[in-house]
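quick one if you have a minute, typing this from the bus. below you get a single protein, a line of residues and a line of whole numbers that encode the local backbone shape. could you go over both lines and see whether the tokens make sense for that sequence. anything you notice is useful, everything is just below.
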Amino acid sequence: MNRFNGKRVLIIGAARQGLALARYLINQQALVTLNDQQTPEQLQQVMQPFAGSGVEWALGGHPLHLLDGKDLVCVSGGVPLTLPLVQAALGRGIPLTNDSQIFMETVKAPVVGITGSAGKTTTTSIFGRMAAAALKSPCKAWVGGNIGNPLIEFSEEIDADDLVIQEFSSFQLELMTTSPHIAAVLNITPNHLDRHADMDEYTRAKSRILFHQSTADIAVLNREDMGAWNLRPLVRGALLSFGMERSPSVGNQVYLKDPNIHAEVEGKATELFPVSLISLRGKHNLMNVLAACALALACDFPVEAMVRGIEGFNGVKHRLQFVREVNGVRWYNDSIATAPERSLAALQSFQEPIILLLGGRDKNLPWQPLAQEVKKRARHAVLFGEAGSKIAAALGTPTEVDYLQSISQVSTLQEAVLQAARLASQGDVVLLSPGCTSYDAFKDFEERGEAFIEWVNHL
């Protein structure tokens, strides 16, 4: 039975998730209203493919009368639940949901869900490659969610024998009332505090990935990250953990024992593959690989599939992505780093002298830990965008004991690229790892990364 047939549904947010959900609901014969604060002129290209579909557009604001007669309100990830329109829906008793929840309610295949403050997309991509290697045709691995296309559009195509690998953000999880069969929490560290009231609220949103699991399900947790490891009391089924070292006090686990990655299941240790197979830089990426291996163990994948997933994987675009070398200077695009902690992990991935590009729109996150590391590891810091002055205040003035030689502040990322080019010498690395969102100047981190690549290629 089609439960959406004839239902009047309001979707708030006409970005990727909202548009995908609108297409799905139209096919389910729902009566869809798409609402966004942007104007018709701004969304002209977005609206064009929906011509003749029956979608009603309500653009330029969020008036409360949009709730009149509605049976359901779907909140896209970028829309805060504090929005008056959302709060009014709650006040009227109109159910709230989102594309991820509807997908989880309709999908026939088992779901592996992955969340965390950092590393979600890389871990999801690696594990997706492992799953593709492990599954035999006609079974298929579907990778999506917060990464790439929302999977709601493919729910009718996904068979019961397939495997779904879904990346979940805190924004998606805060409305979830269904948990995946296998749920991984990679880490929980300060992030999105411009959206969540505090770390407790943010942690609660992340932990919802475990809330509705049963005793037949599996949780995968990072035992080296207290934010993730402290969620152990929520685990109802089996627990599988990962970390850099073997823990004598936990059961099933994945760990590093140089020069190889090992697994221990039911007391039996197995050597999986040498660390030398991993092409990615940094300890944080090694942790992502360990997490992917833990998920592969949870799915009972063979070691050969794990190896095939790792071999030849050079990373995801905009994540420590090598752009080019110019006059002996190597340029890297880490535009995905929208929090200071992610920039810290990127900074620690290099031994070469670094010119670090920081800036954008601040998320009300702590800058001091990154500032201390910048003083030790970066030769020059180039600051740009809205948060430039806040970052400059955190860095202070370089002293004689600091490795950091200079701090430059400019208005735009393009100016930052040109300033970095002037400062760089042969053997340096120029690293865009902004520590901020892109919303002061770009649509998203991908648009920012593409602009950076273009400007670097024109040097």
Summary: The longest helix spans residues 283-298. The chain has a mean pLDDT of 94. The radius of gyration is 23 Å.
